[in-house]
Structures are given as C-alpha cells and as structure tokens.
Design goal:
mainly alpha
Length: 62
C-alpha cells in the first residue's frame, strides 16, 4: 500500500478525515452526538498511537 501522508494528501486532509469526517460518521452509525463520538475516537486513537496498529487498515476496519 502506498504511504500517502504528504505525498498525495496533506496534513489538512488527514486532520479533516480523522478528526471531523470519521467522528461524524461514527456518531451517525452509533446514534450519538458528534462531540461524544469525537471523544470516544480520540481515546481509541491514543490507545494505538505510536504502534504498528496505528497504520493497520485491518485494525481500523473492525
């Protein structure tokens, strides 16, 4: 898989995707507020930050 960070997509895109788009979709799928979803996901992000799972598509697909 091509590592697209900074190659095709910039930090602004990454930030928008992970900090805005994903929480919004997570909130919709789990019938919760955007803020609650964002806090939940930030906790999940922190749990794997700095590990190989952070980069694992299978991990985030579960």
């Amino acid at each position: 898989m091509l590592d697209m960070d900074g190659t095709l997509l910039d930090l602004h895109f990454d930030s928008h995707f992970w900090l805005e788009y994903v929480p919004q979709k997570f909130a919709e799928e789990n019938d919760m507020t955007y803020e609650s979803a964002k806090q939940e996901l930030l906790g999940r992000y922190r749990e794997v930050e700095g590990t190989l799972e952070w980069y694992c598509v299978d991990h985030w697909s579960r």
